[in-house]
Amino acid sequence: MDFASSSTAGMLFYASRAAFILSRFAFLLVGRRRHTRLYEGHYCGMIYHGRKGDLHIADVVRIKAGWNKISAEPLWKHDRQNDYSMYITIHDSLPDFIYGYWQHNRVMQRFGAFVFRRHNDRGRTRFLGTYIGVSSQRTIQNSTWILDRVDDSKPFTYFDARNLLKRRRALLKNKDLLKSIIEKHRGYFADSKREPFEYRGKSKRLSFIIPSNGFNPDFGKISIPLLQRTIEDVPSLESMSVLDVGCGSGFYAIALAERGAKKCVGLDIEQSTINVARDNARRNGVQALCDFRQSYRNNIFSQLPIKEKYDLIIANLPFTNHWIGKRYKKEALAVNFVSSDKMLFDFFMGVRMHLAKNGKLYMSYGDSGYPNALVEFCELCGLDAEQIDSKKERDETFYIYKISHETSKFIPLRHEDLSIAPAFARTIEGVG
Question: Which end of the chain has fewer CB within 10 Å, C or N?
Fold first, then answer.
């Protein structure tokens, strides 16, 4: 055999080996990608404290799969204690397990490890496992941690950045939408002899002082219809607890307390507004039934304990999108009308946590807000939204929604699942 033929044979040999190695590598990559895609989706994260016996929603996590890893991005966190990032690993020998570590994004001394086992139940995915780490009190704690997959049969597109410009164009149709309502409020507060707002209650006329630069329900197109529709749907309020989110003058909480509600709690972010709401409760003789609390600006539910549930939640929150709101950023009154999609998402997660099992949320909304986001956020948070009324005005159409828990969105938890979860951690010892 001459040198040329020997060299050609050698080249063919090494080329065939390289092709074989590349094909195996591609096979493994495709297989791994197909395997990791099983985990992709949106999950409701829940923490179970065995000693306390309570289960609460901590976050909503979006899990994305790469070629050789899984990344987890929290979309919502109940409070700063749950502001963390997850770093996840898959092990080929244990395909039903994922494990890794978590790191708090604000306090670097808070970190720990976790392990989950994947379950399939009725075609749905649930990760059940445990975590251990440094708590906010600098002690070591561990609890059962559940990631419950939301039904992704309809993909959630609102968080997709590619839809940003499309949404912006749709929401900027009427840039002067707030001009008339702001001018009406400005004229009201400029009048030194302005009268309190009055509303005919069940047994007497109710009178409300409006906080400085606050919202007057008498000027709102949907504010009073929201209360009337709520009363029609829930004629008997005896023994019911009520939560008024974004209470302002305390209009809804006081009106429902006068109609017989057992307990009415109002939340707002301004202390001066809370003081006016308390004065209005005394003015109308229902101060013993009403409790008004100031919340943090970035979390309207911050003053509610996690286990506190309400039979009825009512909300007439600001909803005009922030792109229109930019035109009024120097206007103090604009805070009563302008909101963001993040605020809407945070609101629904808070409702998911604080609405009683058979409770109802009644809320108003409008076309100038984020109507597509409202539907998707309810789906993502395990809530069922029903539009029960609408009111078409010259500039905008307003809606009233009745929202409740959609129990089919999440697989019911079994007590035996919660009791065996810590054992999963021992299964994976020594792997990694």
Answer: N
To the nearest 10°, report the CA torsion of 39, 40, 42, 43. 10
CA distance 385 to 372: 12
* Tokens 């309400």 found at: 310
- Class of domain 161-409 (CATH, top level): alpha beta
Mean pLDDT for the chain overall: 77
Helix residue spans in 172-270 (DSSP H) = 179-190, 223-233, 251-258
Band of the pLDDT at 382, cuts 50, 70, 90? confident
3-state secondary structure 253-316: HHHHHHCCCCEEEEEECCHHHHHHHHHHHHHCCCCCCEEEEECECCECCCCCCCCCCEEEEEEC
Distances (CA, A) of 183 to 226, 249, 328: 23, 20, 12
Could you tell me which CATH class the domain 40-150+412-427 is placed in? mainly beta
User: What is the per-residue pLDDT across 10-58, written as a single tens digit (0 to 9) for each?
Assistant: 565 556 556 555 544 444 444 444 455 667 777 777 776 555 445 556 6
What's the rounded mean pLDDT across residues 155-162? 56
Q: Domain segments of the chain: what residues?
A: 3-37, 40-150+412-427, 161-409
Residue 264 CA, distance from chain mean position: 23
pTM of the model: 0.72
Q: For residues 50 and 166, what is the distance between their CA atoms, to the nearest angstrom?
A: 46
CB atoms within 10 A of CB 119: 15
